[in-house]
Write a structure and sequence with these properties.
By secondary structure, the chain is α/β, with parallel strands linked by helices. The protein contains 13 helices and 11 strands.
């Protein structure tokens, strides 16, 4: 008998363990492919009501490719891996939804908070629930002027100890890409270029930085995943760097010009720490008349579709 995939959520073995939706729980039990999706882009990355529409479209892309979507979020002090429709609406529409990284999970669980999960929090919760593949837009990384600020994203250290495959469009181009790649190497995080010999630049198809390994099919990625699992050793993420198509990237000349102005504005206003990234992203979106947002969505869409194909190949 066919079951409604949005029917009730899972058994709950412990208050602080992730709650799996019925659809996700049944897929994992049957060995079917599941793809984790972050919720920050829904709650904080897009204007309403487009954010809810995009969230639905991303989940549908996963299903069309033969996998099960598992959007991750915290609701009333419970971590959820896989959201039913009403929960997805809440993440999209509740203005009080917090932005939660990995370090925020314990306080949020203990205090009954609700929030959307960033890359680090999503990767951690997804891996804890037994998921093998996670799709996002761009990773965090080493910030520019790192030698002065010592500022780098929590994504990097979390991925260094979390064995999940992350499909992304590289790291955000507002960051120090060469330094980020060096840091990933130091931390033992594997990097594959999907159909490219250069690391993507999030809004841009290429950052200009080379990658050591190139794969060209979802099956090749699945083969690397299997080889890593057979080898054993320290758990670390595998990054599949999937470039946004050139026809959908932000014009490189516009990107460089606007980013230079954004960085100048940041210094002039004394913006530092966690406030830097959202300021730069907002500046880019405003000064490119939304073109950066469209490039972001094109990247996310491509990553979600590819992640579903990889998950399906890995499940075979």
């Amino acid at each position: 008998m066919h079951r409604n995939p949005s029917a009730s959520t899972s058994q709950e073995p412990g208050r602080h363990t992730p709650v799996l939706s019925a659809e996700v729980r049944e897929a994992l039990a049957a060995g079917r492919p599941v793809v984790a999706l972050e919720s920050t882009i829904i709650a904080h990355g897009l204007p309403r009501p487009r954010n809810h529409q995009v969230a639905q479209e991303l989940e549908e892309l996963v299903r069309e490719a033969g996998a099960v979507p598992a959007t991750v979020a915290l609701l009333d002090g419970r971590a959820h891996v896989g959201l039913v429709p009403d929960q997805l609406v809440r993440v999209a529409e509740d203005p009080a939804m917090r932005k939660l990284g990995h370090r925020d999970l314990a306080p949020a669980l203990a205090t009954g908070a609700s929030g959307a999960t960033t890359v680090s929090a999503t990767a951690f919760l997804a891996a804890r629930a037994g998921l093998r593949v996670f799709a996002t837009g761009g990773l965090g990384g080493v910030h520019r002027e790192w030698t002065e600020t010592q500022d780098e994203s929590a994504d990097l250290r979390l991925l260094a100890r979390t064995g999940i495959t992350v499909v992304c469009a590289g790291v955000k181009s507002i960051l120090d890409v060469p330094a980020t790649l060096q840091r990933l190497e130091t931390l033992g995080v594997g990097v594959l270029g999907y159909g490219t010999r250069h690391f993507p630049g999030f809004y841009l198809s290429s950052s200009g930085e080379p990658v050591d390994w190139t794969v060209r099919t979802p099956q090749e990625v699945a083969d690397v995943m299997r080889a890593r699992e057979d080898l054993g050793g320290p758990a670390a993420a595998l990054i599949v760097a999937n470039p946004v198509p050139e026809k959908e990237q932000l014009d490189p000349a516009v990107h460089d010009r606007v980013l230079a102005r954004a960085l100048d504005a940041c210094r002039e206003r004394g913006i530092a720490g966690q406030a830097v990234t959202p300021f730069l992203l907002e500046f880019l979106m405003r000064e490119t008349d939304g073109a950066s947002l469209e490039a972001n969505l094109a990247a996310v869409t491509g990553n979600v579709r590819l992640a579903a194909l990889i998950a399906a190949a890995a499940a075979r």
